[in-house]
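REVIEWER CHECKLIST
Item 1: Sequence provided? yes
Item 2: Single chain? yes
Item 3: Sequence as submitted:
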Amino acid sequence: MDQLLNSLSKITICISLLLLLHPLAGVATTPLPHIVSFQKGFTQLFGGDSNLLRSDDDNTVHLHLNQYTGAGFRSSDLYNHGLFSARIKLPSEYTAGIVVAFYTSNGDVFEKTHDELDFEFLGNIKGKPWRFQTNLYGNGSTSRGREERYTLWFDPSKAYHRYSIFWTSSKIIFYIDDVPIREILKTDEMASDFPSKPMALYATIWDASNWATNGGKYKVNYKYAPFVTEMTDLVVHGCISDPIQQLLTDNCAQMDEQLETLPYNTITPKQHTAMKRFREKYMYYSYCYDTLRYAIPPPECVIDSVLRQRFKETGRLKFERRHRRHSKKGGQVLSSQVYDQIQDQD
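Item 4: Structure as written out by the authors:
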């Protein structure tokens, strides 16, 4: 009996440690507005019938990349603010050179003054973690990129995870599942750099061999094709708007008020803790700490004194040499050593 109790105690300790390492620990699931089928809410951008496949219930889309083309789709309408969300499963195995993008933009309408909010997943060589970045542009401010780069606390090719962009007139929050990973609050100093014009939702997979993995060192290897990303349970929730007329109706004002009542608008104390854990453990580049690029941080940056000490003047993480701990089954590096695995960089 003592031996059994001792074993149970060890199991309990292990589970507790895993929960502490997991940014989602203690965060409740957030309810979503209704899911939109592909036919009702989206239109194909490129790729042909063989590269964009829809499920029988029209709620899931498979995007394929092969040696001939990638694939992509966009929402049929543009939205004046909103919640944009999907459950996504990324390609597995060797994915170097691939980019899977889930983003909002109005670049088709405003070519020189476009707004954009990005999730970009950057493929990698087998055995290395998927990396991804978030970014935003307002009014064509592409010369003032606001990139942050991260790894994940899970394998995004093994199961679906929900990725969400929440955008209102005063804030932008990027979510993974129910963890807010980045929050941008609008300031007067940001002026037109804060996205303000109606945007559509886009999703694409494409060959970015020239930059996506280690600055183009590793290219797409089509021996492993097709590369398939799956997107399901898509949500576009906001006020449909005509960007040419640029007239905001009473309905849009009401929708903006309704957006502010969604749980996504308010980060709870538990979610704040989860976001802090994520950014401390998995963020490895931030423009806010890139003093070579921005001698004075852009106005929306909130400098964390603890994080600041971990980044070099290039905005990149200060890598520390540590002994790697391996499992008995032969060498999987523990998640707490994730920084040692990142060879990067751009």
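Item 5: Key structural point noted by reviewer: The mean pLDDT is 86.
Item 6: Recommendation: ____
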